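Project channel, design review

CF: Before we commit to the Gaeumannomyces tritici constructs, I'd like one complete example in the thread so the newer folks can see what an input/output pair looks like. Taking O-methyltransferase C-terminal domain-containing protein.
RD: sounds good, go ahead.
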Amino acid sequence: MGVPKESNGLDVVPLGDSLAATHTGPILVDIGGNTGQQAARLVAKHPELAGKVVVQDRDETISRAPAVKGVQLMAHDFFQPQPVKGAKYYYLRAILHNWGDDEAVRILSSIVPALAAGGGSQVLIDEVVLPEEKSHVWPAGLDLQMLALFGAGERTAPQWDALLDRAGLRAVRVQTYAPVYRGCVIFAERKD
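CF: and here is what came back for O-methyltransferase C-terminal domain-containing protein:
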């Protein structure tokens, strides 16, 4: 079963000149970002973000990543406290569907202390948001694969809300960018 060709989650995130000019710290921290492919595409599309994008992954992954101009590569275990403070966006793409609820809450909770208060920082969760019934075969199949492989799975909007609440976050916006396979970016902020 191939992935339907649809747009990219970062296409729905407000990035660009004005943000790069006004936000003093990192703009995007790509948590679990592998070797930086997504970040490389982002900086190529928005060169004004060069130097304000961080890719984090395990040491063995980062150590084999090619250098990407304008992107900082950082070894980091996402179960540990987030070392980059006050970034505008902390981005997790296809990370949480690999983990059960308790582990996903640990991952999200490790980010919360790094968030700037008052909506200055957001967690971007780029995942499938399943409908509560009558799902397309692709996201339903992916849900079953995640269950078989990891004992985890895709989540519905109420399941995402409950997960965020347990981690001290709340969804402020959900933007669908891939209607067929229900690819969405959940914009989350601290509850306090």
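RD: helpful, thanks. The two ends are 42 Å apart (CA to CA).
CF: The chain has a mean pLDDT of 87.
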